Amino acid sequence: xxxxxxxxxxxxxxxxxxxxxxxxxxxxxxxxxxxxxxxxxxxxxxxxxxxxxxxxxxxxxxxxxxxxxxxxxxxxxxxxxxxxxxxxxxxxxxxxxxxxxxxxxxxxxxxxxxxxxxxxxxxxxxxxxxxxxxxxxxx
Length: 139
What we know:
Number of strands: 0
Strand content: under 5%
Largest sheet: none
Distance between the termini: 66 Å
Order of helices and strands: HHHH
Low-confidence stretches: none
Mean pLDDT: 84
Structural class: mainly alpha
Helix content: over 70%
Radius of gyration: 36 Å
Oligomer: single chain
């Protein structure tokens, strides 16, 4: 009777635990593969958009640079109304060099504050953690 009871369970469509685990494993594996394909497609699309966006930012920077050049030319032309053209160009050139020098000094100061390029606070914190662990291990 016992063996016929077991056979009737299989006949009703119920599978053993091993078969169910195998199916679940296959389905999970298939799901992971499908999710990975979806993620790859999404990242490819985002990568294309990032590239296009980066190109547009580059173009915007170039146009802004050309605008600054036009502003410099306009300033020289404006000063040329009161001074000779060579004098107004020399004044604008001098002002631009002074601005460049100030920006370079500010940049040098910022780089100096960032040196050395190591996470010193994190290193100190890790050293303190290691010392604490060693101290507790000796107790």
